[in-house]
Design a protein that fits this description.
Helices cover 35% and strands 22% of the residues. It is α/β, with parallel strands linked by helices. The longest helix has 14 residues.
């Protein structure tokens, strides 16, 4: 378990993600993307739009990575215009799609090569062609079945907004397993090759750039973004996103009106402080995912435990553990314990574990018992204040255990308070005491409070109880029996 990989590739949808209804990109989003690029992060755009429209935005933002166009049917270099990959619609299916549009009296358009062909210029078709940074050139050709002789990159049905949902359902039923059908805007329903999607295009681009899946972030808002958000190592749905995209996401950002894309990039890529403390319900799986993202990116979260609220950091990240000391104003000579989720995880953080440790763990874990053991090499020295030993505990709290399991690493944790002050027992207490020092709080309601855990030092013979805590009497009985 090494330190988490940083984000090295960001893919952003356009409309509803960084482009508002006036086709504007906010100054905050521009600044976040600029700073990400300066930090060495690749940034690409992923849209249903054609390449020539997307390149305008890429130029505006100073991007040079290949662009994901036509819902993922084309990946094309923003500078050289080289087509890196292409998945077109099979000709027979294109003709069938056009025939269905005729049966339903829908306006239908086709992108052949890089040009837009229509049957006639109706008000709906004109709206589609003009929905963008520049008016799309279109050529009326009559019946597209007679004109389209080569595989189109994309087909589009333009309907009234109230008809679009039904059009999407009908086309998905008709072309299930043959074409990818998606609703890209309130009144646009698009069809591409089944192999073409923003998700598969992002996978292709990441491989081309030498970026691991875990090092990617995707941000989107509509159903056609869901598979890209799901594939990315860290998927972000906008606050205004569809239910499908939110379900696919690891994190739900603020809506576009509040610069959600910038917020996510600042928080997880730039690891920059954001304006608000994020308080989320600990009972929701999405909240655990949000907390994991913060931890994997070197941040600190506040969380409920079986005694009081704690603040936690990734147990193998020295820089994150440093933040615990800074937030608490804690003396560097005081070690911080590790929380784990399973007894077998002791082997990850400790070596030369005596049989007595396993016996005590079986008897008292999960619970208020901390074992001091010889530390493994992976445990940072800053955590143990330079000592060769580490405190380990399994807490008796479902939220804490769920977070540690989802993180896949031990949690360095200490009470959520300034050193010497009363620990917090509610999420509100955390905010009052720590303010914006912690940017994410898992709200699990009121913690029971109580006495800090019993601490047993097993690095000495005979073992010594360093802090009595609630289990001292029972632990002493076990130690006496072991000594006999």
């Amino acid at each position: 378990m090494g330190e988490p990989l940083p984000i090295r590739l960001i893919a952003l949808d356009l409309d509803g993600t960084i482009l508002d209804r006036q086709m504007r990109i906010s100054p905050r989003v521009r600044a976040a993307l600029r700073d990400a690029r300066r930090a060495g992060v690749h940034v690409t755009l992923a849209s249903g739009r054609p390449f020539h429209q997307m390149r305008l935005y890429a130029d505006e933002l100073g991007l040079d990575a290949p662009l994901i166009c036509y819902q993922g049917a084309v990946v094309q270099d923003a500078r050289s215009e080289e087509v890196c990959s292409q998945w077109a619609v099979p000709l027979d299916m294109a003709h069938e799609f056009i025939a269905v549009a005729h049966q339903q009296n829908w306006d239908v358009c086709a992108y052949v090569g890089s040009h837009l062909y229509v049957e006639s210029i109706t008000p709906a078709v004109r709206f589609y062609a003009e929905y963008g940074p520049v008016k799309e050139e279109m050529t009326p050709v009559g019946d597209l079945r007679d004109f389209v002789a080569s595989e189109p990159l994309k087909l589009v049905v333009v309907t009234q907004e109230e008809q679009a949902a039904r059009a999407s359902e009908l086309l998905q039923e008709r072309f299930a397993g043959r074409l990818r059908i998606m609703r890209s805007f309130t009144c646009f329903v698009e069809a591409t090759n089944l192999a073409a999607s923003k998700g598969q295009a992002l996978s292709f681009l990441a491989q081309r750039l030498g970026v691991a899946q875990a090092e990617t972030m995707a941000i989107g808002d509509n159903d056609n973004d869901a598979d890209m958000v799901a594939w990315a190592g860290w998927g972000v749905a906008m606050g205004n996103a569809s239910a499908a995209t939110k379900d696919a996401a690891d994190y739900v950002a603020l809506p576009i009106e509040e610069d959600g894309a910038a917020e996510a990039i600042e928080r997880f890529v730039l690891q920059r402080a954001v304006d608000k403390v994020l308080v989320v319900p600990a009972s929701e799986p999405r909240s655990i995912q949000q907390a994991v993202a913060v931890l994997r990116n070197g941040g600190v979260v506040a969380l409920p435990t079986d005694t009081v609220y704690g603040i936690g950091a990734h147990g193998f990240m020295s820089s994150a553990i440093e933040k615990l000391f800074q937030i608490k104003e804690r003396e560097r000579g005081k070690a911080i314990a590790l929380l784990i989720a399973r007894p077998e995880d002791v082997a990850i953080v400790a070596v030369d574990v005596p049989d007595l440790a396993w016996h005590l763990a079986e008897r008292f874990w999960p619970g208020a018992l901390t074992l001091i053991l010889p530390k493994a090499a992976a445990v940072p020295d800053v955590l143990t204040a330079g000592r060769d030993s580490v405190g380990v505990r399994i807490p008796a709290h479902d939220v804490t255990l769920g977070l540690i399991s989802a993180l896949g690493a031990p949690l360095a944790a200490t009470s959520a308070n300034l050193s010497g002050e009363v620990p917090a027992v509610t999420a509100e207490d955390v905010q009052c005491v720590l303010g914006e020092r912690v940017k994410l709080v898992l709200d699990g309601g009121r913690c029971p409070g109580g006495v800090a855990s019993t601490v047993v030092d097993l690095t000495v013979v005979p073992p010594i109880i360093r802090r009595r805590g609630p289990l001292a009497g029972e632990v002493e009985a076990v130690l006496r029996r072991d000594a006999q």
